[in-house]
Amino acid sequence: MKDKDDDIYTYRHFNIEDPRKDPLPSRRVRRWAFGLRELLQDSAGREHFAKFLSKEFSGENLKFWLAVQELKSLPISRVASYAKDIWKEFLAVDAPSPVNIDAASRELTRVKVESGKPDRYCFDQAQAHVYHLMKSDSYSRYLRSEMYKDYLNGAKKKTSVKGIRSIVSFTGRKEQSTN
């Protein structure tokens, strides 16, 4: 039996940030609105988007996309077994976390995975389809969501307080040096 940390959807090679750390700068959170790629490249952005998707019952899309990204970075010796794991988890008829892709992409991917020697790119068409779904649907809803707006406003407030503290301490030092 696999350890939970070995599940293909745990993002084990991504640096998920500890939410108890200092709040993110608002500039960083605002960058997430530049595009889905920008959001997915930021570890905190990915995590926040994943939470949003799970509330919308579509978290499997991001999990699939991340698993395929991970597949592309694996040593060739692990690619075939990992590709089969991805297929079973997300695309098989009885998949526990099924993603919604078109029939042509599913069939092309199935043929590549079942060929006996799937490569790192056997999910490219399916991944592109899922990315398009996230970009055109989930991502736009995320940017309009209260969840994102609240996170952005919280980052602005925390950044503002930090900025005020630095001004206060700067003027305090200045006053001390003139006395």
UniProtKB/TrEMBL annotation:
<dbReference type="InterPro" id="IPR016137">
    <property type="entry name" value="RGS"/>
</dbReference>
<protein>
    <submittedName>
        <fullName>Regulator of G-protein signaling 6</fullName>
    </submittedName>
</protein>
<dbReference type="GO" id="GO:0009968">
    <property type="term" value="P:negative regulation of signal transduction"/>
</dbReference>
<dbReference type="GO" id="GO:0043005">
    <property type="term" value="C:neuron projection"/>
</dbReference>
<dbReference type="GO" id="GO:0005096">
    <property type="term" value="F:GTPase activator activity"/>
</dbReference>
<dbReference type="Pfam" id="PF00615">
    <property type="entry name" value="RGS"/>
</dbReference>
<dbReference type="InterPro" id="IPR036305">
    <property type="entry name" value="RGS_sf"/>
</dbReference>
<keyword id="KW-0734">Signal transduction inhibitor</keyword>
<dbReference type="GO" id="GO:0008277">
    <property type="term" value="P:regulation of G protein-coupled receptor signaling pathway"/>
</dbReference>
<dbReference type="GO" id="GO:0005737">
    <property type="term" value="C:cytoplasm"/>
</dbReference>
<feature type="domain" description="RGS">
    <location>
        <begin position="35"/>
        <end position="152"/>
    </location>
</feature>
<dbReference type="InterPro" id="IPR047016">
    <property type="entry name" value="RGS6/7/9/11"/>
</dbReference>
<dbReference type="InterPro" id="IPR044926">
    <property type="entry name" value="RGS_subdomain_2"/>
</dbReference>
